[in-house]
Structures are given as structure tokens and as C-alpha cells.
């Protein structure tokens, strides 16, 4: 059993549905997900080597949210992380740690030449 967060408990207790929740429920019923998955599946990348791709059903739902709300890639990631209403549609149950928006610090190469050995004698 997974432990739910305080925000999920508060979200489940509320009585009134928001406009976003109503829209997403209609979107979920309106789109034939199984037919759409069958069309896209032959073209979706397979996990032959390296990092496995994200599930096709999740990616299609995230893409629909991105198009409907006119969001960028980072914008849809932030919206799913911050909105309890978007998580069930994209099949995310808990917020994930967002990627860092800053560039990584460049790595300085270490000097690989050998050090000069000093003999204890002086001339």
C-alpha cells in the first residue's frame, strides 16, 4: 500500500468539481484511447537498449493535455506536478522531482601528466 500525501487527502475530501476536472473527465470519455494506441503503437520506439521509453498510454495522455492547454514540454511537466486534477489523466499518482532548469557545471579536466620527482639533494 502506498502512502498518500496530505495534498491528495485534501483533494479527495473536496466536494465541488473544478472546470479542469470536468473538462478532463469529458476528454477521457471522448477520446477512444484503445484505438489511438493501436494506431500509434507500431511507430512508438521499442526498448532495445538504454533507458526504456515512457509508456505509450501515458505519453498520449500527456500530449493531449499539452495540446489542450497550449503548454510547452516544461510547462506540461510543471502543470502535472502542481495540479492534482491532471495526475489521474496522465497516470501519475505522486509528484516526481522536476528536472533542474539550470545547466550543469562544466567539468574541468584533471592534469594527467606525471609530477616531477624532486630529489632531496640540492646542487
Number of beta strands: 0
Mean pLDDT across every amino acid position: 77
> Given the structure, what is the number of helices?
6
Query: Which overall shape is indicated by the principal axes computed on the Cα atoms?
Result: elongated
Span between N and C termini?
A: 77 Å
**Strand portion:** under 5%
Oligomer: single chain
Q: What is the element string, with H for helices and E for strands?
A: HHHHHH
Rg, nearest Å: 25 Å
Largest sheet: none
Q: What helical percentage do the residues reach?
A: 40-55%
Which stretches are low in confidence, meaning pLDDT under 50 for 5 or more residues running? 93-99
Q: Which class do the helix and strand fractions yield? A: mainly alpha
What's the arrangement of secondary structure elements?
Layout: H1 6-13, H2 19-30, H3 33-40, H4 56-68, H5 73-82, H6 86-89
Question: How would you explain this protein's 3D organization?
Answer:
The protein is built from six helices and no strands. By secondary structure, it is an all-alpha fold. The radius of gyration is 25 Å and the shape is elongated.
Summarize the structure.
The chain has 123 residues and is mainly alpha-helical. It is elongated, with a radius of gyration of 25 Å.
Task: Please tag this protein with its features.
single chain; 123 residues; mainly alpha; 45% helix; elongated
Amino acid at each position: 500500500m502506498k502512502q498518500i500525501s496530505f495534498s491528495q487527502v485534501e483533494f479527495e475530501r473536496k466536494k465541488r468539481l473544478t472546470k479542469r476536472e470536468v473538462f478532463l473527465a469529458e476528454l477521457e470519455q471522448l477520446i477512444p484511447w484503445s484505438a489511438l494506441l493501436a494506431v500509434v503503437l507500431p511507430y512508438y520506439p521499442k526498448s532495445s537498449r538504454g533507458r526504456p521509453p515512457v509508456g505509450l498510454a501515458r505519453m498520449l495522455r500527456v500530449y493531449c493535455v499539452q495540446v489542450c492547454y497550449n503548454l510547452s514540454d516544461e510547462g506540461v511537466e510543471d502543470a502535472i506536478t502542481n495540479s492534482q486534477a491532471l495526475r489521474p489523466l496522465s497516470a501519475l499518482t505522486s509528484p516526481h522531482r522536476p528536472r533542474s532548469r539550470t545547466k550543469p557545471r562544466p567539468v574541468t579536466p584533471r592534469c594527467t601528466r606525471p609530477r616531477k620527482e624532486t630529489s632531496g639533494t640540492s646542487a
